[in-house]
Write a structure and sequence with these properties.
By secondary structure, the protein is an alpha/beta fold. It has helices spanning about 10-15, 20-25, 30-35, 40-50, 70-75, 90-95, 135-145, 160-165, 220-225; strands spanning about 1-5, 10, 60-65, 80-85, 105, 120-125, 150-160, 170-175, 180-190, 190-200, 205-215, 230-235, 250-255, 270.
C-alpha cells in the first residue's frame, strides 16, 4: 500500500529527494549569481500583489519559496502579517540575518499548515514548475488552495514561456564573487534547462548545478490553476501591471481561491491500495 497526502505519493516523493536539482543549487552561489534581484524589484512585485488582489486582512500572507526574504520583508513593511516558507536552510539563514521572521523550512508540495490558514499566498520570481512531473506542480497549487481561506488571494509570478522559447540565450559567461560562471541553456521537451558551471578563483574543484523549469503557456497555466481551485482574475506582463503579451518579460497571474475546496486536496494522510 502507498502512503499519500493530497494526491502526492509519499513513497515516490521520498525516493526522489536526493535527485532534485533545487536541493543543491539554492545556496550562496545562487545568491551570488542573481545580485541584480534587489529590494526595489521586490517592492514593485509586492505593490502589484496588493493592488491587483489585496489579501484578506483577517489572516496572514504566506510567501511561498521565500528564499532570502526580500519579498517577505516588503510584505511585512506594508503592515501585513507575513510568513515565509522555503526548503533551503542557507537562504532561510540569510533571511533571518536580515531580521525577517517568521520563517518555516518546508516543501511546497506538503505545506506544514492547517487548512484555511492564510488570507493570501504569493509565489515570486519563478518558484514554480521545478518538479519531475506535472502532477507535482498541480500538487503545489492544490496545497496553495488548501491553506488559503475561501476567497483568499494569490499571485503567481512566472517566466514568460513564449518569450523564453523564442529568445533563449544558449550560453553566457560571467564572473561572480569567488569564481567564473558558464551558463548553458536548452529546451528539453516541456522544460527550459540551465546548466551552471563554476570555476572557483581559489583553485578548488569546479562545481556543477542545474536549473530546470517546466514551461507553461498562459492559457495552460490558468487552466491548471482553475482545476486546482484557484481562479485567475488578472494577467500581467511585468511588475508595473502592464497587460501581458508574447513580448512581456514575465507572466504574472493573480486571483482568488474558489469558495469550494478542491477535491483531492487536504492535509489528512490516508492509505491507498495499489
Amino acid at each position: 500500500r502507498a502512503l499519500s497526502q493530497g494526491g502526492l505519493d509519499l513513497e515516490r516523493y521520498e525516493q526522489r529527494l536526493t535527485h532534485e536539482w533545487f536541493r543543491d543549487w539554492f545556496g550562496e552561489e545562487y545568491l551570488a549569481l542573481y545580485p541584480h534581484r534587489d529590494a526595489e524589484e521586490a517592492r514593485s512585485a509586492v505593490r502589484l500583489f496588493l493592488k491587483a488582489t489585496p489579501p484578506l486582512r483577517s489572516a496572514p500572507v504566506l510567501d511561498l519559496a521565500c528564499g532570502a526574504g526580500r519579498h517577505l520583508r516588503e510584505l511585512s513593511g506594508t503592515g501585513i502579517d507575513a510568513v515565509g516558507l522555503d526548503l533551503s536552510i542557507v537562504l532561510l539563514h540569510r533571511s533571518r540575518r536580515h531580521g525577517t521572521e517568521p520563517l518555516v523550512c518546508g516543501d511546497m508540495r506538503l505545506l506544514p499548515f492547517a487548512d484555511s490558514s492564510f488570507g493570501g499566498v504569493t509565489s515570486f520570481f519563478t518558484s514554480f514548475g521545478y518538479f519531475d512531473t506535472p502532477d507535482e506542480d498541480r500538487q503545489v497549487l492544490r496545497e496553495m488552495r488548501r491553506v488559503l481561506k475561501p476567497g483568499g488571494k494569490f499571485l503567481l509570478d512566472f517566466l514568460n514561456a513564449e518569450r523564453v522559447r523564442r529568445d533563449l540565450v544558449e550560453e553566457d559567461v560571467r564572473t561572480i564573487e569567488g569564481g567564473a560562471v558558464k551558463q548553458s541553456r536548452s529546451i528539453q521537451e516541456d522544460s527550459v534547462v540551465k546548466r551552471i558551471h563554476i570555476e572557483p578563483h581559489d583553485g578548488s574543484p569546479p562545481r556543477e548545478y542545474e536549473e530546470r523549469v517546466r514551461l507553461y503557456a498562459a492559457p495552460d497555466l490558468e487552466s491548471v490553476l482553475s482545476s486546482c481551485g484557484l481562479q485567475t482574475v488578472g494577467r500581467f506582463g511585468d511588475y508595473e501591471g502592464t497587460e501581458y503579451s508574447a513580448a512581456s518579460p514575465r507572466l504574472i497571474l493573480a486571483g482568488h481561491a474558489a469558495r469550494a475546496s478542491t477535491p483531492g486536496a487536504g492535509a489528512t494522510l490516508r492509505l491507498e491500495e495499489n
